[in-house]
Amino acid sequence: MKKRLLALAIGSMVVAPSVAMADKGPIVYGKVNVSYENQDDGTNDAWKLQSNASRLGVKGDLDLDVQDLKAVYKAEFEISVDDGDKDGQTFAQRNIYGGFEHAKAGTLIAGKFDTPLKTSQGKVDQFNDIQGDLKNIMAGDNRVSNIVQYSTPTIADMVKVNVALIPGEDQSAGAEDNGVADAISSSVVFDNGAFYGALAYDSEISDKLEADPTGDSKLNILRATGMVRMDMFEVGLLYQLAEEEAGNGEDSSYLVSGAVKLDRWKLKAQYGLTQADTTDEELTLMAVGADYKLAKNSKAFAYFSQVEADLADSEDTTFGIGFEHKFSM
Fold this sequence. Notes:
Signal peptide: 1-22
Main location: membrane
Number of helices: 2
Strand order of the largest sheet: 1-3-4-5-6-7-8-9-10-11-12-13-14-15-16-17
Largest sheet: 16 strands, antiparallel, barrel
Oligomer: single chain
Radius of gyration: 23 Å
Order of helices and strands: HEEEEEEHEEEEEEEEEEE
Helix content: under 10%
Number of strands: 17
CATH superfamily: Porin
Membrane topology: Multi-pass membrane protein
Protein name: Porin
Strand content: over 45%
InterPro entries: Gram-neg_bact_OMP, Gram_neg_porin_domain, Porin_dom_sf
CATH topology: Porin
CATH class: Mainly Beta
């Protein structure tokens, strides 16, 4: 009897890990990013507690009765840690989708999520989600509804191609945005660990030129991104050309970023510039900061940023200190 119990116990320890490996979800995850900031627009200033795109989500995959095929899903919501309110909502939708992933054929997802052009920036933006974010001076930072995306498997462990189709879904009489793909977003991404590079293009995406926001609401955007990552250093460069579909305006932008890692410290800075060809408006972004790693998924940080518009004669400066905790279970 004792021998049978011992055999059962050993068998359960062998089988249990394999069961756990087969069940890869759902995974509950999120992050809390909070900063206490002084924001000054040149006329007024105020101290604010900011919830910088803090989020809560669930994601996972399900094995299907088809070889090498599984179902994938994700539901992610922004949470406002500061006051519990995001434009009147307790939970504001971020990236939400469902689809299929095949080991050899690639991944197909549909829902509402970041475009391939937006995600192509990788980690070049050292101040993502806070006031030094590149979205403050350039277009292309789009999360769109009704989007269907195909991504190839990673080729040679380094290259991936993404193509997304976005129907306009306009059923009104005489509407033009009623096709299969009224807007398209695509990217080719190369990542071997030490070097990250991406080339992305949006066609007729709903957006506005940052340097001239009064023009056409459909843009064609070309974005090229490169980043070198070493043990102690990170150097990134992003160039973008955004033009109105109607041909009335064009923004050219670039961003240069860098960081130095010293034990638990990460010292970082970036500079960006956007120029409009029609209005001669010029937007500049400057940000410097420091992160201190408290643990693998936790950090404290401080930063200073400045966004300036030349012709509008405006200058927004922000100084903030904060923390970020990431979690999953």
